[in-house]
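Re-running SBSPO protein to confirm reproducibility after the cluster update. Everything else is unchanged from the original entry.
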Amino acid sequence: GLCCPGRDPACLSAGRRPDGSTGPCYCDQACARTLDCCHDYAQACPVIPCVVSQWSAWSGCAEPCKTTYRVRTRHIIQEPRNGGEACPALEERAGCVEYWTRQGTECQQSLIPALITTGGFGKARKKRAAVDGSERAGYCVEFQLVAITPACLHSHHSYTQWMRYLREGHTVCVECQHPALHSPSQHCYGDGTGSQQNQLLRWQAVGNHRCEGTWRRIRQLDTCSCPSVHSFLFI
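Result of re-run:
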């Protein structure tokens, strides 16, 4: 009936040891290493590790319209005993942003990440708009690229080659055209409208979800004159 945690010389009985000899048998957790247990110690005092449940579903963001965190939890099903492995963390947090309030209204534009693609698709857009007569006047926004994930440089498909031209510190020009121009706001999502000066804004490349980063809004140009190399489109 003795199963003492740690090393405890007072946890003592007498009997037969695993090597066949008889004498004092220690019933603490160190006896497994020193071989001075009783022969039935492993059965009488088995090592029982901690057992935890599966993770719960992720919660929503702690606060809407802010870069905060979400939480998931799990609980202990069985406590560790007799030197069993300790319990792991019971809570995990991950960063998140929600773009809608609890009442279902849209958060400010500056929080919404911009989805961008190469400016080369703009010609096809304009051709389609000209056919149905729905072309509207757009605008351009200049940004300075601050951070870019390494995945942008490892885009091997032909339709993602343009991502290799993204470089930290470069100024890029992003055009807001129909049909990305949303009414009634008359803005493209993620264009940084309402952002503070030098605020870091998020962008993501369409076609490779791991190609993303941050930039700062420089200015809006009502008359577009984007260069061909660093020209992109809002989606």
